[in-house]
Amino acid sequence: MAKKIAKKAPAKAKGKAKAVAKSSKVKAKAKPAKKPALKVVAKAAPKAPKISTKGWGKDGKALDGVRILDFTHVQSGPTCTQLLAWFGADVIKIERPGQGDITRGQLMDVPNADSLYFTMLNHNKRSITLDSKSKQGMNVLERLVKACDVLVENFAPGALDRMGLTWERIHSWNPRMIVASVKGFGPGPYEDCKVYENVAQCAGGSASTTGFHDGIPLVTGAQIGDSGTGLHLALGIVCALMQRNRTGRGQRVLCAMQDGVLNLCRVKLRDQQRLKAGPLKEYTQFGQGIPFGDAVPRAGNDSGGGQPGVILKCKGWETDPNAYIYFITQAPVWEKICDLIGEPGWKTHPDYAKPPARLPRLTEIFGRIEQWTMTKSKFEVMNECNALDIPVGPILSMKEIAEEPSLRETGTVVEVDHPTRGKYLSVGNPIKLSDSITEVKRSPLLGEHTDEILSKVLKFTPREIAEIKASGATGEAPKAQAAE
Ligand code: CAO
Fold first, then answer.
1. Does the model's pTM come out above 0.85?
2. Is the pLDDT of residue 113 over 60?
3. Which of 82, 106, 155, 261 to mutate to test the pocket of ligand 1 (most atoms within 8 A of CB)?
4. Is the beta carbon of 196 within 6 A of some atom in ligand 1?
């Protein structure tokens, strides 16, 4: 079907173009136009590059040639620029002399070494120290703006403007520059607020819908406010780069953390509207006869997809806090579930055979399934269920994930060596491109690349570099040197 449409469309368009050309000729003969007739110029198809003959993954990286002025700190911004760096962008991280990104010194586990908080969010980047509020610092920044394609920042609202880097100024220095920002809130009553992860989870609808209906709101372990927004911002930047290929100009990209969280909670806004039509029958609360209020309640471990699902105990749950499995009573596999748990009669019994009949009995049904899961380890349940195409989710601990060989093989969990902290584990690039292979390189030491960037990227002369340094704009030379 799609093929047919695709074939037909150009033919139609051609016919129309011809018809327009013909009629304008006829008109031109009958009555000469006062104004010169509009020229119909055939639009040349954009010249596509030749198909590479190099092996997959051997022809550079997706974002080769893109240079990022990385003015990010803490988590949301750095996750975004780390992703771009993994795809090949040259990411130059500007850090305040002396201190750098505040996370370098937060949650430290090895004395005098950058924290894991920092190292795990700043791979594949270069670091330059620069006091952006000094005169010489601003001169360097101007040169950087001219040399980069994208400026990414997640300062408090207004901080970039206070520094003197307004959009108008940046655009006048480099009209091609894309300026991408993470803020806590978009325009509105809270736009001036500073925001951290859990604030965004609360303001974006996640906390009010996470937890059990009779408990307090909960935040999730997944950093959906910070890393989630960084991911959204990275997509916005790549789109702006694509548009710039056509328009030649940069633009602003804004991702508010509240919006990013809400985007990830969209099924809950769906349920908010469904409430008008009556109780949410797939919620455990319905089967328990607990009335619904006027806002989406916390749904415990109920599945968000409309298929009833809960977390059940497995063998060893008394001592192992993660001996559990997520179990979904998906309609298409219901009969297999009945056979597996030893309740073949449920396949035809009117109280259990069809999903609507099961909804008020979910507590009883999952109780019976749990009797079965408690006789097996979570991995045994996983194997037996998956052999029958019954989807289940073993609750994997971070220890199990860190030790999982298949995640090491795919580069999702990587071991990285660092000159001052030694070897550590990190999460690698979760997005796999078959022709742009990610190599995870350690995070930079504070100011490690200051000289290199001033001379090789920004082409300052040795004399100019000496002047910049003497002014204090770059702070002291880094003490720790890379061991490479
Ligand atoms: N040279 C000189 N000054 C610098 C500098 C440099 N290289 N880098 C930063 N600064 C200055 C800024 O200009 C700012 O100065 P002013 O307040 O005078 O304008 C100052 O450092 C502090 O910046 P900040 O307000 O962004 O930092 P903060 O620690 O007070 O707040 C945060 C942190 C995260 C709450 C805030 O940046 C924010 O709300 N960001 C947007 C939302 C966000 O990304 N949150 C995610 C955080 S991760 O959980």
1. yes
2. yes
3. 155
4. yes
